[in-house]
Amino acid sequence: xxxxxxxxxxxxxxxxxxxxxxxxxxxxxxxxxxxxxxxxxxxxxxxxxxxxxxxxxxxxxxxxxxxxxxxxxxxxxxxxxxxxxxxxxxxxxxxxxxxxxxxxxxxxxxxxxxxxxxxxxxxxxxxxxxxxxxxxxxxxxxxxxxxxxxxxxxxxxxxxxxxxxxxxxxxxxxxxxxxxxxxxxxxxxxxxxxxxxxxxxxxxxxxxxxxxxxxxxxxxxxxxxxxxxxxxxxxxxxxxxxxxxxxxxxxxxxxxxxxxxxxxxxxxxxxxxxxxxxxxxxxxxxxxxxxxxxxxxxxxxxxxxxxx
Length: 308
Hints:
It is built from 8 helices and 9 strands. The chain is an alpha+beta fold and 308 residues long. The longest helix has 26 residues, at 202-227. Keywords: Heme biosynthesis, Oxidoreductase, Porphyrin biosynthesis.
């Protein structure tokens, strides 16, 4: 049985800090290095801390790239599935990186990624159990079959690199998770999502998370570069702000990461950094918004397995 000694924890934190650094660097390149960065290093009274980075520019209207490494005496119930047999009464240490990007151009999709590891810790800092989770998903405002195929092919390629069984399972879990039951809508076109996974050893699992993060940012960077100069109208922008509301609704009502952050007394500013900078809930939809939404919802309901 492994021990959670400073060397092991430092190595795990170093891996996630590298993930944060790589993604931030690629987002800066997307913005032609012309962006405002706000870096906030924070500590948590109950144990641990992190580094939250906010990026704003002409291409990426707002992005948050957050690293956290926190510990506690009791694992919040929101960090595990309801069917789990994992003991939530043990001490824990959780390390992760979360990313959300809201581009300015409505033809550039919003994206999300997170990777994390939970360590269930007993007496004398003995690791009693561990598991990883994460994934990425894409939320477009205007249909693009090319973007969807690019996104899902990249997801399948990285999953197949580690196990031929991963992609079908992770893609299905993503579709089921990023769903708004009160709207009866998918949040976007999906991607991959998994939780409570033990892929061989901790080292192999960290390799998986690292490769997932690289696939996410490289694929997203290519999609943004293909659309960042697309011309758009005020109607397009109004529709984007309206559909961003779905993102807010999901993150505040259903997102397990948001609930975990609140339940673990996390930094509120970092938890809510995923919300878009501008959003609108019109009481009465314009004919333009109604027409665009009908087209988008039909696109979101596609079976993307047919496109890869």
